[in-house]
Amino acid sequence: MLKGEYLRYLNKLYTYMGLDDLSKEELKDLVRGYAKNIIAMDGIWFQSNEKKNGMDEAMEHDRNVWKNFSISEGRRLKKFLHLEEHPGLTGLKEALSIRFSALGNPVVELYEEGDFLIYKVVKCRVQIARKRKGMPYHPCKSAAIFEQRCFASAIDDRIKCDVISCYPDVTDENAACVWRFYIPE
Residue 10 pLDDT more than 70? Predict the structure, then answer.
């Protein structure tokens, strides 16, 4: 099937499925549901890998997945938001506010602090699920570093990112993880 035919097919399919009939609120709920589904799928994939291959190998794959996925997600959101080449922290703030993790986690904060943009996942769906299942917390820091840095760089390659708090190195007991974004002088 040619690209144009495929796109027309998808358009028909989505129209048939009733997306055009959904209200704005229903579409918002659908997007938030999809964001939660991405987090759930990632957790299921990771737990399967963890069970079969052990934590170290699962984390190696997790780092690779997040590095590549975050670049892709960042580029797509940059295009969707019509951001310029170097939109700075303002563009990053726009993109972070609608990325899947911001929409799929129960409580996320995004705010400016001086010349920094702070992204805080207060309640993390992954850690909540692992606790509910009696599993140890996911040692997400090494993969999340790739996730946050690659996403930010896809929005604006000048942006740097520091981890303030992320399991297993938690320095903020009131959040699952905290990230600081900035553009060096």
Answer: no
